[in-house]
Amino acid sequence: MSKLVTKITDRDKDFASWYTDIVREADLATYGSSKGMMIIKPYGYAIWENIQSVLDKEFKRFGHENVMMPLLIPESLLNIEKEHIEGFAPEVAWVTHGGHEKLEERMCIRPTSEVLFCDLYKNIIHSYRDLPKLYNQWCNVMRWEKTTRPFLRSREFLWQEGHTMHATKEDAMEETLRMLHVYEDFQRNYLALPVIVGKKTDKEKFAGAECTYTLEAMMYNGVALQNGTSHYFGNHFAKCFNITFLDQNNELQTPYQTSWGLSTRMIGGIIMTHGDNHGLVLPPKIAPIKVSIIPIGEGKELSSVIEKITKELEDIPYEIDSSDKTPGYKFAYSEVRGIPIRIEIGKRDLEKGEVTLVRRDTLEKENVRIEDAVKRTKELFKIIQDDMYNRALKRRDEMIYDVKTYEELVDYGKNKPGFMKINICDNPDCETKIKEDTSMKSRCIIEDESVNGPCIVCGNKATYRIYVGKQY
Amino acid sequence: MSKLVTKITDRDKDFASWYTDIVREADLATYGSSKGMMIIKPYGYAIWENIQSVLDKEFKRFGHENVMMPLLIPESLLNIEKEHIEGFAPEVAWVTHGGHEKLEERMCIRPTSEVLFCDLYKNIIHSYRDLPKLYNQWCNVMRWEKTTRPFLRSREFLWQEGHTMHATKEDAMEETLRMLHVYEDFQRNYLALPVIVGKKTDKEKFAGAECTYTLEAMMYNGVALQNGTSHYFGNHFAKCFNITFLDQNNELQTPYQTSWGLSTRMIGGIIMTHGDNHGLVLPPKIAPIKVSIIPIGEGKELSSVIEKITKELEDIPYEIDSSDKTPGYKFAYSEVRGIPIRIEIGKRDLEKGEVTLVRRDTLEKENVRIEDAVKRTKELFKIIQDDMYNRALKRRDEMIYDVKTYEELVDYGKNKPGFMKINICDNPDCETKIKEDTSMKSRCIIEDESVNGPCIVCGNKATYRIYVGKQY
Which of B23, B34, B43, B60 would you mutate first to test chain A, the one with the most A CBs within 10 A? Predict the structure, then answer.
C-alpha cells in the first residue's frame, strides 16, 4: 500500500468522509472563496465532457436544437406561475444592483428555465407549422442551498435542460417518456448505473408540473440519488404565458410542454455506486483516460514495447506514467483515479514476452502476450462495463425490501439502508408522516406491481405501490 | 426578389438597421423579458458550436485543460487587485440575497475570472512541478452594459477564458503570444477575417494587465471590432494573491500569469464583415449547413438525383428544402441564412444531365454534370473561403489611411470611415484628445512600422505608430 491510498477513509466506516476523500484524491473538484460553489477540476470536467458528448448526439438525433437563454429572470416573469415561484423562491439568488445602480426590478439567477423558455416560445410559436419546438441548453444554474457537497448538492451546477412544446397532449407525453428512456439507456449503458425509473407521487413532483418521471439510483450506502427527471406540464404554463397557435383548422389552441434535465450530479452517482477503498472506479465508456501504462524500469526494449502498444491503442485515450515515483505509488495513483485498465510493463514480464494487465474494478491481474495486450484490453473494457453494471444491480436488489407494516418500516428506516416497497394511499399526509418518522421519502411509483394491501400508514385503501428511501 | 429579402435594409443606407435585420431574418438571436441579455437561437448557436469545436481542439493540442469555475465572486475577492476592481466595478451585477436572506457579503456575477483562478491557483501551486497550469473554461460572463446589441455588446455573453500560470516571465510571454496566434490563425482560416494583431497602448490595456494583445477586425462600415485579446500579467496578480512556488533550487518564487478570451462577439464580426443585402454570408468552414438542396418540381428522377447527391455529400451537413414555398422564396431563404452553396435541381437541367450550383458569396451560378456536382461543391468551398478572406482584406486595406496632421485626422474622423495610421507619444492625454475630437480610439501599436514624425496631437517626439479608429 502506498502512502497515497491510505488517505482514503474506509468506505464502510464513514461513507461521507470516504466520498470527500475520493473527490479530493482523484482530483475531481474542490472549493475556493465562493461559498458552496464547487470548482470542477480538469479530471472531473473531462468526465462531464464525455457525458455531454454522448448525450448531445442523442438529443440531436431526436431533432433537438441547442440554444443560449438568459442567466437572469426578472422577478415578475418568475411570478407568473404560482406553484413554480413557491417551489423555487426559497432557494434563488437575487441580483439587485447593476454597477453602481439599484435595479428597478430585481432579477434572480435561473434555478431552472421554464419561464424563460415560455417567454421565448410565446413570441415564436404562432402556427401548428411551428411545432414541435425542441430546444435544449447546456448551462449553469443556481440554487441557494444551505448545506452543499461537491456534485451532489452545490449552489451552482452544470446541466442540460430540454424544454419542448407540442401540438397535442399525446406528443408531449411521448416526448416526456422518450427523453426519460434516453436518460435511462445512457445511465445504464454508459455510466453502468442500474436506475429505477418511474413516476413521482404528486407530493414529490416538480413545482408546476402535471407529472414528473424520475431516475433513482441507489448508492453503495443504500441512499437514493435522484439522477435526472423528465416533466410533463400539460398546457398549464402555456396558458399562464398566453402561448397559442392556430391549428390546421385555423382554430386557436394552447400547446403542451415538457422539460427534462441531467446534471453534474451524475458524477456523484458514479463515485458512490462504483468507487471502493482504493478510490474512484470509472466505467470504461466514460473514462477520460482508459489505459494507464506503467513502465517498471527502463531500457530500449521496454520503450519499443510501449511504442508498439500505444500505436495499437489508436484513439483510445491513455497515459504513460514515466514520473520518478515508485511503481507502488504509480499503481495507487492510477487506481485512485479509476482508470479502467493498467498495463504494467516490467523486465521480468518482457523476458517472457508478456505484460501485466490489471482491471481497476476487481484489481485482478493477468499476464498476456505483448501482441495480445491491446486486443485483450478492448475485450476487458466490455467485460468491466458489464460487470460493473451487474454488481451494482445485484447490490441494489439485495437492498430492496418488501415492507408490510408501519412498525417494520420505522425499524427498517433506522436499521436497514436501502429502498422499501410499500402500499400507500394518495393522501399526502401519509408520505409526510413517513418522512417525519423515518427520514425516508417517496422515490417513485412502482409501475409493474399492483397494490396488495392497505395504506401502510393510515390503513385506508391504498392507491399504489411506491419505493421509499433516504436521499441525497 | 422574394418578399423575404425585401425585409433587409440596404447595407449602405443604414448599416445599424441592416445588422439588426440580418440577426432577425437569419434567425440568429433575439430578446425576451431579460433586458439587454440576448437569446441565441438554434442557427446562431450552431455557429458558436462550430467555433467551440475547432478552438477547443486547438487549446487541448497545446495542453490546456477545461474546468468549471464559480459564477459568483465575493466582493472581498474582487477587491484584492485595485486596478482590476476599478476597471470592472461600474459594470458588474451584484447578488445581495440568497433565498429570503440577505448575504453577509455581496457577490458579483463574474465579468471575467482572473481573481477566481488566482484564488484556486494559490491552493494548488506549490512547486515548479505544478507549473505550468494551463486551465480554460467555456462559460457565460456578465457586464452590465447600458446599450446593447446582439453579439456585439450584450449584458451576458458566452466565451472561453484561458488562465495560465508559468514559472518564468519568458514562458508566460510565450504563452500570451502563442494563444494570440492561435486566435489569429483561427479567425483568418476559419472565419475569413483579416484581423490586425498588435499590442494595446497602456491606456487601452486590460484592467490589471501588464500588457494586452488584441485582434482588431474592420467591419464593412469601417468601424473596428475588438475580436479577442491575450493578456500578460507579469506576477502582479500572483503577488496580490500570495501565489508562490518552490523552484528547482528550493527557493520561493512568484509565478507569471496570462489570460486570453474569445467570445460570441465573433459572430457579430462574421455578419458585419461578410454579410450583404441578401443576408448573412457564412465561411464554408464554419457554416452549420454547408449545402442547401432545392428541388424545383417533383418526380422519380429528381428524387433519385437528390439521393445520389446527398449520399456523396457524406458528412457535409446539408438541408433539402421540400417545403411548399415557391422556388424564389426558397432561394431567398437559403441566401438570408448564408448557406455557402445552393444546389438547384430542376427538370430542364435534369434533361441535360445537369444541376445548377449557386455560390452564396457572389451569387454566381454554374451548371455542372450531376456526377460532378459534389466534387465541384467541395472545390467551391475552398474557393469561397479564400475569396471571402481576400475580398475582406482588400476592402480593409482600402480603408486604412496614413494620416500626417491633426487637422486631417479630425476631418477623416468625420468623413472617412476606416483606420488611420498616426504617430503618437506616450502621454495618454493625447489619446484622450483624439477620442474627444474624433470619437476614434487607439486600436493597437503598429509592430512593423517605425515612427516617421512627431506626435500628431502635441507635436512632441512620438513613441510609436498606432492605428486609431471608431469601435463597437
Answer: B34
